[in-house]
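Input/output pair, single chain:
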Amino acid sequence: MTTAPTPVPAPASAAQSGGGAPGPAATTPATADATTAKATDTTATTATTAKSTETAETARAPRPGKPRAGRGRAWLAALPLLLFFLVGFGLPAVAIAIGAFTTSPDAPDGGGTFTTDNLTGSLQGAYWTALWGSVKLSLLTALIATVVGLPLAQAVATSRFRVFREAVLSASGVLANFGGVPLAFMFVATLGNAGEVTKKFGLTSHGWNLYTFTGLSVVYLYFLVPLMVITITPALEGLRTQWREAAYNNGATVVQYWRHVALPVLVPSLLGGFVLLFGASFAAYATAEAMVGSSVPLISMQIGDALSGNVLVGQGNLALALGLDMIVVACLVMAVYLPLQRRSAKWLA
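Output:
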């Protein structure tokens, strides 16, 4: 019995030249070596590129424990501001604190002795009345200016007329810094007992008197309301349009939008503006001095009298104790504002 010979497959090139169907290409040793070499070169190139990229990123990244030289010198740009703050606020605050707890140089013991009489005296009698009067005046005027200034600022922020917007903001910037004797004279000439508006409308017969607590509050609002407008306008511009549109799309009214969306976001900014207005009213001196004098008890008037020498012998440092009382009140107000300001930063960023 004869066995048929086993067919041997022809090379791919021979099969293709013969016109048959192409079969799987046979891998020769030379081709395999070339493919392997090419893959090795590609892998080496990729590794080299990755290593170069890693090296560049490592070079750019700051080393642990060694901050960049630029960051280390960044605080130098704020050095003039820090020096100004130290000289203009730090040193006077320290001098006030020291003087408030020491006797006056005109005291019988020669002064410089530790005592709490100055601070105790500043919280009694006429001085306590003046301190409480300043707090009441500042709270009232700051609250009214906040309530009145918010809708005015909203009208400015949503206005489509650029000229109107720029005119209101420019006027607010001027009026917010208009105070002192010129402001007092303007109100005396218009709303005083012999003022033009008072005589024309007969305000005196209706109980109006400019030289009272109410009259002084009206005068303070003249510069506090514009100050509130320029303070709260940037916060109103930070309210995103998507929030209002989403509220309206879900059926909310304008009142509901302001109650549940806008006002909760604006509360820290409103409180910040209130604190600023409180400080401006609390520290005002020239306007009240020129208009009402001592008829309205204010802490700033008492400090002015003490500095001018209108105090008892041996109580010259009482004015420093009164100044320390003002600093404490301002710090208490700021302690309420700062936590809320940090809370709202993420919303208006």
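The chain has a mean pLDDT of 79. Residues 208 and 215 are 8 Å apart (CA to CA).
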